[in-house]
Amino acid sequence: MHTGKWILLGALCVLALYFIWRWWTYARAPAQRADKPRSGDFALGFVTNFFDTLGIGSFAPTTAYFKLRKRMPDEKIPGTLNVGHALPTVAQALVFIATVSVGVTTLISMIAAAVLGALLGAGVVTRLPRRPIQIGMGVALLVAATLFVLSNLNLFPGGGEALELKGGLLIAAVAINFLLGVFMMLGIGLYAPCLILCSLLGMNPVAAFPIMMGSCAFLMPSSGLRFIARDRYSLGAAFGLALGGIPAVLIAAYVVKSLPLVWLRWLVVVVVLIAAFVMLRAAFGRAAPAELAVQGEVR
User: Are 137 and 74 in contact (CB under 8 A)?
Assistant: First the structure.
């Protein structure tokens, strides 16, 4: 394995340990301890991260579940996604970076761009009031549903055979991955757009897996700490996602490896569209006095 990959894997392990330590420090506060995980959080973490490892994506179905079940205030959903799915995504990245061939320069530069975009995006999202976040997540769910439909209809670009990008193609990939990192903070999953990006630029679609998983594995702990510091997430739900998700990743990567997923994507489309409708209705509907008061406090 290339030396650059060993350095990348080592840095990812250090980041994950730092994330765990910082998260534990914040979670020990008395106000945080009251937020306990529920059995459904563990199950959700297992299911979404199992299929995430196989290429389904975890953000859209998780957002749909949280919204339809009213698990937490809407403004805490983006932070819960980034904090709760961070460690399972690190597990995915460790597996795929180590086992899939891809150009190291392409891999590292696209990951760095996504992390920078996420850090800038998190700084904005953690300060937004509820309504803009609801609108952003509603649009994100519609985007996710569209990508699922395109995937089911085999309308994604087929890709090429390249394992790395150079010159103008690499610059374009880095710039777009930066934007995808920003959008991640509003709940728009990076996996499908990154896969489309790599395929359009002529890369082998398999080579996109360490890029998209590595991008998320580095950006989610980094940005997640900002959500944790501002208490813009649900500790219990995030803990359930993480604890349920890690074993699911290992099972999917080493035991199952592949499944026919078209039927599942159609089911996800239906659920995500319902959640998008509910989210946007809440954003554009008439807010109750109590909700307006909360939004005023956030501002």
Answer: yes
**173 DSSP assignment:** H
Residue 172 burial class via C-beta count within 10 angstroms: exposed 0-12, middle 13-18, buried 19 and up: middle
Contact 296, 132 (CB under 8 A): no
Longest dimension (CA), the chain: 59
Domain spans, the chain:
3-286
Give yes or no for residue 27 having a pLDDT over 70.
yes
Residue 294 has pLDDT above 50, yes or no: no
pLDDT digits (tens, 9 = 90+) for 112-162: 999 898 888 877 777 777 788 778 778 877 877 787 787 778 776 666 788
Q: Are 135 and 281 in contact (CB under 8 A)?
A: no
Percent of the chain with pLDDT over 70: 90
Give, in order, the Cα–Cα distances in Å from 182 to each of 105, 127, 136, 187.
21, 14, 12, 10
Q: What is the 3-state secondary structure (H, E, C) of 27-54?
A: HCCHHHHCCCCCHHHHHHHHHHHHHHHC
In SS3 terms, 188-225 reads as: CCCHHHHHHHHHHCCECHHHHHHHHHHHHHHHHHHHHH
Note whether 101 and 208 are within 8 A (CB): no
Q: Which residue has the tokens 């998320």?
A: 216
Q: Give the mean pLDDT of the chain.
A: 84
Give the pLDDT mean for 195-221: 87
Q: Which amino acid is at 191?
A: Y
User: What is the model's pLDDT at position 174?
Assistant: 94
